[in-house]
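[worker-b] picked up task from shared queue
[worker-b] task type: protein-ligand structure
[worker-b] ligand name resolved to adenosine-5'-triphosphate; SMILES cross-checked against name lookup, match
[worker-b] sequence length check passed
[worker-b] input payload:
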Amino acid sequence: MSVIEMNGVYKSYLNRKRDTATIVLRNIDLRIEENEFVCIVGPSGCGKTTILNLMAGFERPTKGSVTYRGEEITAPSFKRGVVFQEYSLLPWMDVRGNIDFPLDRKLSADERGKIVDKYIDLVGLSEHKDQRPNHLSGGMKQRVAIARTLALRPDVLLMDEPFSALDEQTRKHLDQEIRDIWTKDRKTVVFVTHNINEALLLGTRIVMLSSSPGQILGEWRLGTGPRDMSSKYISDLRDEIISKLEPCACASAGKKVITIE
Ligand SMILES: Nc1ncnc2c1ncn2[C@@H]1O[C@H](COP(=O)(O)OP(=O)(O)OP(=O)(O)O)[C@@H](O)[C@H]1O
Ligand SMILES: [Mg+2]
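[worker-b] inference finished, payload out:
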């Protein structure tokens, strides 16, 4: 059984007057298997975040089904941990407090403390654990957000362009960290990115969506091992993926609008 399965998924949104709807996703069939690191790429507005929202349980499909280990996803669950592009940290709490805050209160303070310290250490923030978010850099804040999600020990990690707001060097560093965490933990990860190199570095599979309405345009399997980003294999793959990328579908250009009968 797949970890997450999308079968014949359509998603559309009604406009304000509720007489027309915009189709955002069309007929998505996607299976996420155990221990995969699936990178979803595609032009802006093609529905990548919508797919993650459906997997997280923040949204329901208009048609089709989205299941987690065979069960229909009807609501968010701690089993599917989400890391957003924005850090969404609590500014009045320090690093420890931010990671401790969502943990199960049935755990003792001591147990929670051990979990918090373990994940602070994992993301390399031990020296900053008593600092508040406004004293941290963007990269550090995103590490806190990752540690906070990992501390909940989710079965699946859903990441929506988690490093896109960061500078190139910090992003590369965090890419490596997330790859190391995945190698150690072998969690199932779904990772949305605009950055093809990031997808080539991290993904065991890359899934490309077309511009709106989003449909699956192509898939590439890369295996689980580390890869040589300067190899001919990766360079050819990069060229192939880029040649398939459609131009940005910003604003409403190309969007399919249907009338509700
Ligand atoms: N709640 C909503 N109501 C109406 N339209 C929405 C809603 N959420 C998303 N959309 C529309 O759905 C489309 C897909 O949005 P989505 O955020 O999934 O795209 P994306 O691929 O993640 O884009 P980006 O790369 O810019 O983050 C967009 O056209 C967006 O305007
Ligand atoms: Mg998005």
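[worker-b] attaching auto-annotations
[worker-b] Confidence is low (pLDDT under 50) at residues 249-261.
[worker-b] releasing lock
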